[in-house]
Amino acid sequence: MAAVVVVVAAAASCWSLTAFVLLSSLLLFSSKPTFAESDSHALLMLKESFDDDDASALVSWNPGSDPCNEEGKWEGLLCSNGNLEGLRLEGMGLSGKIDVDALILLKDLRYFSVMNNSFDGNIPEINRLGALRALYLSKNKFSGEIPPDYFTGMRSLKKVWLSDNEFSGKIPSSLSDVSRLVDLHLENNEFTGKIPDFHQRNLRSVNFSKNKLQGEIPSSLLRFKGDVFAENPGLCGAQIKVDCNETDKPSDVNGGGGDKNDHRKIIAATVTLGVMLIALIVFLVITWRKKKRKKASNGGGNATENGNSIANIEAQVSLPATVGEVHVVRRTGNLNRTVRASYGES
């Protein structure tokens, strides 16, 4: 009888423990936000940060629905096994602000692209997403300088596309510290200064063309062809067949090379102007002396005239049958005189 009681008591204890575990699990899962309650909220926050007139492409983003539901997945989402891993909001005519706080709530976000839209202003603080692997901001209207340490801490980053914007200033030096970097596209911006060294072993695609970069192309990038450095008038290197001798090196934007060149130009212009001025003075002196000599020569000739010096006397005498006439023509300078004499018959 005692054994039966022990068995019954043990069974009751086991059942109580099982019930407790089931109840605890039920309470745990009911208190944890579902996917739709967490990620959908963050996505709707992001949508609200865009300009209302431009968010028509996101009409599928509706509250109360599962963003990664295969039957009605929200536009622009990259999902894997029901988890949101990326946003590909490309070519949707979006503008306004990118709410980074909303992106941070997407814990599994690894891929972010807003290529070919109309976002402008400074680069958003997407560097707060330390686990991001791919960042695509190309073909927008972003502008201004990117802080040198912007990419510090983004150790998982593999792909960076910032091309076809209006970024200026120097290329962020922190990019050279992103150890896993594979793709780097910065073309068609207004970056200045020198290209940093990139020693990443896996770096396979770069493009620095159509900027305002200066100086020698780093030796760490010798394996890339010249077209990825094209249309940077200040660059030099073997890839683009521009010699980097000291006398021909482009000056740094903030350096003193440009001032030295300007100083040389000013000196050359001053010397040239001085030579021209001296030549003009010599010409005027010679011309004045020639005129003075000519004037003196003409004055001597007039004095001879005033002294009644007679030259070039031309006489004509004709003797008619009855009357002899003598015509004498005297020329003195510009004065012509004719003397006529009549003679009787001889």
UniProtKB/TrEMBL annotation:
The keyword Thylakoid does not apply. Keywords: Leucine-rich repeat, Membrane, Repeat, Signal, Transmembrane, Transmembrane helix. The keyword Lipid biosynthesis does not apply. Pfam families: LRR_1, LRR_8, LRRNT_2. Residues 37-80 form the Leucine-rich repeat-containing N-terminal plant-type domain. It comes from the Eukaryota. Residues 1-36 form the signal peptide. The chain crosses the membrane at residues 266-288. InterPro entries: Leu-rich_rpt, LRR_dom_sf, LRR_N_plant-typ. This is Leucine-rich repeat-containing N-terminal plant-type domain-containing protein. It comes from Hibiscus sabdariffa.
